[in-house]
Amino acid sequence: MPSVADGKTGSGVSPTLALLAGWLVPGAGHLLVGKRVRAGLLLVSIGCMFAIGIALKGKIYMPNTGEPLDMLGFAGDLGSGLLYGLARLMGWGQAPVLVAVADYGTKFIVVAGLLNVVAAVDAHSLANGRKRS
Amino acid sequence: MTISHFSAVLLFSLFTSIVFGITQRAEPKKMVSFGALCFALFVGGTIAASWAMWLIKH
Q1: Residues B9-54 pLDDT 10s
Q2: Hey, is the C-beta of A101 within 8 angstroms of any chain B C-beta?
Q3: Please, are residues A77 and A33 in contact by the beta-carbon 8 Å criterion?
């Protein structure tokens, strides 16, 4: 059986590539290892969560603000990969958070990023054979 | 866009449970049951915490 120890992969796809693809685009890592349904569900779930966060006027964190909590928020946001880049490019999430629902939006965006990291690591595990199927 | 607090809970729980189900279990059947369990715990836990806060206030 292929395993991490013998250097072979479970799906023939480079685990690093699956990890990077999964981080950049939600579900792309699973698509690479041949799990199309899971890839679609991940794309819809994480993408919708991020989009709802933006629609609720949630905040997009910036690097180097000097505030420790902002740095943690930035790390969470960065987990969304290209979605975070797109939000920065389009200038989304820059308005000050004034209502509770907008604060929910901020949390939606951060959690979407963290869930995307979990999904990318799962794709890595599928690619290297650590996870069976 | 504006949604109610409970709608936010439902949406958050739904999407998070889907990702948890897919990533934390290996077989499709177990993914569905684990996702459903996560959803129930998220929503149930939020309702329980809400009532607990109401009781503390009153």
Answers
A1: 999 999 999 999 999 999 999 999 999 999 999 999 999 999 999 9
A2: yes
A3: no
